[in-house]
Design goal:
about 200 residues, alpha+beta, Alpha-Beta Plaits, two-stranded antiparallel ribbon, about 25% helix, extended
Length: about 200
């Protein structure tokens, strides 16, 4: 939210400060050999920043299932589906709660396979009013995009509910090709195998 670097110039997210240049910290964990390998390039890129290298203790490494030689490869399936996109404003409400949260919960209650909410930086809708995410913009009414992918039948079934919830916005349905990867679990042991 706030900080300064070697130049002692303050970077802040406060609305009273006109600076949009916020402090950024990037962390990564790697072997000492790999860090030494990339350090010259990082030094070149972050010439005006601070680079800190220190020893760390990793308590939980990558999942053992990912590293196991016996791990089953992911299964792949392809199908046709529909994608629903809903464009609204961050300040839009439904029953005194954020509309995007209410829609997401409605998707979940109606067993839509999955949905994601994105917060935009800049955009406008049918009324041509700009929605902007910036420290200089007091309204902070950023554009919001919800996406969901499922069968056409399930997505169209939720449209009557959206008719009630979305007072001003845009709902788009489009055809998509779905490529799904999933790790299948090994088959459970039979009773006789378990006894052995």
């Amino acid at each position: 939210m706030a900080g300064f670097g070697t130049d002692h110039k303050m970077h802040t997210a406060s609305l009273v400060d006109i600076s949009d240049h916020l402090p950024i910290k990037i962390e990564f964990v790697e072997t000492a050999e790999r860090v030494q390998e990339v350090l010259p390039k990082l030094t070149e890129i972050a010439s005006k920043g601070l680079i800190e290298v220190h020893d760390t203790y990793v308590i939980r490494p990558s999942s053992p299932a990912d590293q196991s030689q016996n791990a089953t490869p992911p299964s792949k399936s392809e199908s046709k589906a529909k994608m629903m996109r809903i464009l609204i404003g961050e300040h839009d409400q439904w029953n005194h709660k954020p509309l995007y949260d209410a829609i997401l919960r409605a998707f979940r209650a109606n067993e839509i396979d999955g949905a994601t909410v994105y917060r935009g930086i800049l955009g406008y809708g049918a009324n041509q009013r700009m929605h902007k995410d910036s420290a200089l913009n007091l309204s902070h009414d950023a554009p919001i995009l919800l996406t969901a992918v499922d069968t056409e039948e399930k997505l169209r079934a939720i449209i009557p509910l959206l008719d009630q919830m979305v007072k001003q916005g845009l709902v788009v349905l489009s055809d998509v090709d779905v490529v799904k990867y999933s790790h299948t679990q090994p088959p459970p042991e039979t009773t006789q195998e378990a006894k052995r």
